[in-house]
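Z., the sequence and structure:
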Amino acid sequence: MLGRWIVQRTVWVLPAASAERSHGLKYRLYCGNASRCLVRYDNEAGKGDHRHYGRREEPYAFTTLEALLEDFQVDVNRLTNE
């Protein structure tokens, strides 16, 4: 029932890679609503690549942008029963 959820994918290409973001991207991928986050992938400063899955927060092993988007979509489909 994806109609009940907000799905947002935001990816910025940075002017240069850094030690913290060696892939040169800043991203935030989100699925949830006003009261609940189902899943979020992001790489905020100080935390690096990671995933919020329900109440858990865990490291995410970034390989490529395509794999990141695919992993996020798999989680969205699983959690929304799509």
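The mean pLDDT is 93. The radius of gyration is 13 Å.

Let me know what you think.
H.
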